[in-house]
Amino acid sequence: MFQLNLYLRNVLSTIVVTVTAVSWSAQAQAITIAGSSSGTWINPEAGAENPNPIFSGVGTNIFQWGDPNGFGTGSNKLSFSGNSFSTSNDSLFKLGDLTYFNGITLAGTLINSVSLNTLINVAIPTLLDQNFTSKVKLSTTLNTGAPDLDADSIFFPNRFPSPTFNLDGTLTRLEIVGFSKDGGATTFSQLRVFEGKSDQASLYAKFVTVPEPSYTGLHMLAFSSLGGAYVLKRKLRRQKLVTSKG
Asked: Matching InterPro entries, A to Z (predicted)?
């Protein structure tokens, strides 16, 4: 009987700890996350159709490509301007602005894709550097003289990396929402721009707190243990009665 009572006390202690942990999780406060972001262009890829690729700006926030000589518009250009942010976990914030300029350039001197390496420097609540890389595909058409047909496009990834890290003791995931023109309410995967024109989109993300084990799962574990103790107690009582009658 002493061992059974001790077992029941241990089970009840487990339930108390479980309920306390769930209650603490439910009361977790939003935390302020502040810092800045920046971006550089890396890994340009030309492809076989561009035997004489011309480009500049690798490792900087402005990447240019294509030979513009004789056309008067300048090269194609991608630029990324980082942003300072102050946000809270699970809230949307802007990482930076991307601008695409579509210049008229010579065929065979182009680039098919280039990657944007985005660096996030967190200063509050703790010092943390985190980066991710996303490939931007560059689609160029042969000019015909018709503005709509001559427009070129860039394509963003349909899915972005989601790095997970420890942020001041809290397991956190950086969720990249995507490029948007309306504050992150909607996103899109393409910018299509006329020759000699430019367009802009902003990159949005949020810090997502990785959830702890669910309330239901924890309580099922606790009450399963309690149920097991109850069954054991009834079984011992029956054995005791049988022994007494014998």
From this structure: Choice_anch_K
Amino acid identity at 220: M
Burial of 203 (0-12, 13-18, 19+ CB in 10 A): buried
**Helix 2-26 and helix 215-245, axial crossing angle in degrees, nearest 10:** 170
Ranges of each domain in the chain: 2-27+213-245, 32-209
- What are the backbone angles phi and psi of residue 69, rounded to the nearest 5°? -55, 125
Contact 68, 88 (CB under 8 A): no
* Beta carbons of 138 and 193 less than 8 angstroms apart: no
- Residue 226: phi, psi to the nearest 5? -65, -40
Instruction: Tell me the CA distances in angstroms from 145 to 9, 12, 141, 149, one per residue in order.
Output: 84, 80, 11, 8
pLDDT value for 22: 43
69 token code pair? 């000589």
Global pTM reads 0.76
Tell me the pLDDT tens digit for each residue of 78-118: 999 999 999 999 999 999 999 999 999 999 999 999 999 99
Average pLDDT value over all residues in the chain: 84
> CA-based diameter of the chain, in Å?
111
For the stretch 147-200, pLDDT in tens is 999 999 999 999 999 999 999 899 999 999 999 999 999 999 999 999 999 999
Q: What is the DSSP string of 79-106?
A: EEEE-EEEEETT-EEEEEEEEEE-----
